[in-house]
Design goal:
Helix content is 52%, strand content 17%. By secondary structure, it is α/β, with parallel strands linked by helices. The protein has two domains: 198 residues, Vaccinia Virus protein VP39 (Rossmann fold, 3-Layer(aba) Sandwich), CATH 3.40.50.150; 117 residues, no CATH class. An eight-stranded mixed beta sheet has the order 1-4-3-2-5-6-8-7, sandwiched between helices.
């Protein structure tokens, strides 16, 4: 595994560790069948031009694109690399696909030589690193190579979902739900052991408004908002409260502290996803810059899903001319 980053994003690393170690927020990446079908179709088409291509997937995350590449090609491509700023994400991919080579790096400065890859891909990732990362991907392509990017689109269904998730988590944090639950359970476990019940009863009353706020959030945005994290927190606290005598104090308090960290990391990820969404003007600029560098834009459009009013992504497929800059 190649490493080229001194400041791994803590929120992304926490997120990908969570998908592997704690099972928290395991949705990790878009898994809509239409997205998967897009990649399978592309890689099957690419087999007509490449028998054994060098492939780089940028901002690999949970390895969705890597999985499709391996499925489409009958054998491991000559060189198959996954790149992500999160070391945890790369380790997760390597544990599933040991022959895939990992690079821990910011997408703006990839430690590979110019023209190293026949195919460069990214699914909802390269845009986080900004415009320069797309130009860096262009540098890495060999002559006649293909760049295939699915990128967040502003006013898309995913953009709206990210905004709602961020607001939901922010409201949960502002309500003080987790800290108030910690105080209630701490007093509750002590009362079970014979301490005065008044602190427990008082802390239960103080938690009530926060409970009402979570209920309001779920009514407004649905129970699945923020990857089910709000509803899961709400339901689990309720279940533990009803059967508190069956739990250990240290386990419950440690779980709540961990959930507070996970919510913060999730909120940062949702904020990052919202901020990285590309509008029409930015998309046109990307196309212009690639054209100036000798690329032919083969596909540049929004990806729509049947039955959905809002788009899911920008689709950009560009081919590098031989001997282009």
């Amino acid at each position: 595994m190649i490493s080229n980053t001194s400041q791994t994003s803590k929120s992304w690393d926490k997120y990908w560790r969570g998908t592997n170690d704690t099972g928290a927020f395991t949705s990790g990446g878009v898994s809509h069948p239409a997205i998967r079908a897009f990649w399978i179709e592309f890689f099957n088409s690419a087999k007509q031009n490449y028998n054994n291509p060098n492939i780089l997937d940028i901002a690999s995350g949970n390895g969705a694109v890597i999985e499709c590449a391996l499925e489409a090609f009958e054998q491991i491509p000559n060189e198959l690399y996954s790149l992500d700023v999160s070391e945890a994400a790369i380790k997760n991919i390597h544990s599933r696909y040991p022959k895939v080579k990992g690079i821990v790096s910011n997408a703006n400065s990839v430690p590979k030589e110019t023209g190293s890859f026949d195919i460069v891909t990214s699914q909802y990732g390269i845009e986080y690193a900004g415009h320069d990362a797309i130009l860096e991907a262009a540098r890495l392509l060999a002559d006649s190579g293909s760049m295939v990017l699915l990128m967040h689109c502003d006013a898309s269904s995913i953009h709206l979902e990210c905004q709602q998730s961020f607001i939901a988590i922010e409201r949960t944090q502002t309500s003080g739900f987790i800290q108030l639950a910690i105080e209630m359970f701490d007093a509750g476990f002590k009362s079970i052991k014979g301490a005065d019940r008044k602190p427990y009863e008082q802390s239960s009353k103080q938690l009530a408004p926060a409970i009402m706020e979570l209920e309001s959030i779920m009514r407004e945005y649905g129970s699945h908002v923020a990857g089910d994290s709000i509803s899961r927190l709400y339901n689990d606290v309720g279940q533990i409260h009803q059967r508190i005598q069956h739990y250990e104090s240290a386990d419950v308090l440690a779980w709540l502290n961990r959930m507070e960290e996970e919510l913060s990391a999730y909120a940062k990820r949702m904020s990052s996803m919202s901020e990285s969404a590309i509008n029409n003007s930015k998309f046109e600029q990307i196309k212009d810059d690639l054209t100036e560098r000798g690329f032919v834009i083969e596909t540049a459009d929004k990806l729509y899903i049947p039955g959905e009013e809002l788009p899911m992504a920008w689709v950009l497929i560009a081919k590098k001319h031989a001997q282009s800059l």
